[in-house]
Amino acid sequence: MKPEHDDHFLLRWLRARQWDADAAEKMLRDSMKWREKWGIDSTLNEWKAPEVLETYFPSGSTGFDKEGSPVIIVPFVGLDAWGLLHAVTKTDVIRMILRHLERYLALARAQAQTHGPHALKVTVLFDLEGFNMRQYAWKPAAEMVFTLLQLYEANYPEILKSCFIVNAPKVFSLAFSVIKKFMHEYTISKIKIYGSDAKKWQAQVLQLIDKDQLPVHYGGTVLDDNGDPRCGLIVKPGGKVPKSFYLRNAANDADKEYKRVTIKSGEKHTLDLLCAEGDSVLKWEIGVEHHDIKFTIKRRDEEGGDQLVLGPKKVAEGPVDVGVLPATGPSTYSVIFDNKAFLRSKKIFYHIIMTIPERDLSLNIEPDDP
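Structure (tokenized):
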């Protein structure tokens, strides 16, 4: 036991298991074993992060909320998951995140000495400006995200005071509907999601955080030594990882067998996918060679009842449209492409699958290295 393992610490585990003392004890013991395997209380602080992580991992803090808790700011668009996972291992990325989190929690404990127990939690601001779904449809990136969620829920219960997700595009709501399947209801209840209307989310953020603790870009008054309203010297922006850091061959990962179909004028093309059980996910990557095309997704249950679950959604020539959709079964999901163009065939290509993340992704909560 450590000095910080006081009643406030023990209450976190009891609340996480709805006051079932035996279950809370098992959760805590399992977490202690996990901390030992990852060297959280021994080697993690001395671990030397690879240069690419030190340079291109986005995160930072300019202050504290009104109760003294650390405020963590994550400019999420700066997280180049593709680049980082070609430069270092998934274990390295997770270790970097854990080290950041442990340092913020140590800071929170120090704050609690003068501000009281309300300072023991953290407040987080995720900026999703420029969010790109395509990175997280890539299997290794998805595995990293879901593994992190599992590690967080199993080992850091009740540490989140509030999480503001701002500048979220519409497509993020689809992704979040999948992500929250891996999250505890307590965690979900602390998350507030806002679009790009700064007036709306800044008003909410400023109820918890004073202006002199926030960068100007987020409604505060803080500038870094360069006069940057985003405080890039303090809150690392991350950025695209140069290929000179890559250790793995990205070209092999980029190869994907797309199904290619020509749809004649006035005709439809339908792809049926069986969803055998709940907690499945329908994932798609869809492109069109010229012009544009619309698609819809329908669900048919065992009784034959049809339900429109997405669309019509237009895909234009250019970047591949990437998306995810939670699916429940037993049922059949139909992706229907409709070419309503007069006297013009449409050439499309797609990669569409039905998957169960917990089964089809490698969610390894152990470090890859000894």
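DSSP finds twelve helices and twelve strands in the chain. The chain has two domains: 7-245, 256-360.
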